[in-house]
Amino acid sequence: ALTLKTREFEIGVLLSMGVSKLKIVLQFFLELAIVAVVGFTLAVISGSLMAKKAGETILSYQVSKSDVSIEEKSTFFDFSADYFTDITIEDLTSNYEVSISPLIIAQIYVAGLGIVLIS
Question: Does the predicted model carry a pTM greater than 0.70?
Fold first, then answer.
């Protein structure tokens, strides 16, 4: 409602020039969609970069916490490093990757544009 009130003069000029009400409404929706797509694109890019950094930080924290001896953690179970010899910590950290699937990105765009159009 606030946007329409501030653009009242523009709407009046367009109507006086013979532009149909449908075209004016479609123009407003197109403007909203363009702003939303730009915003969602920036959000997806910055969000994936932050998720990657956060994932790497959490992984490095977990690796540093795993330096604590397993024997110190439990007196009830017999943990041994011999059970997990297939992968090293270096292999784990080098192969670790945080990514957002294209399906999730598409869902973000569809849900976001739906909310923008409904509001």
Answer: no
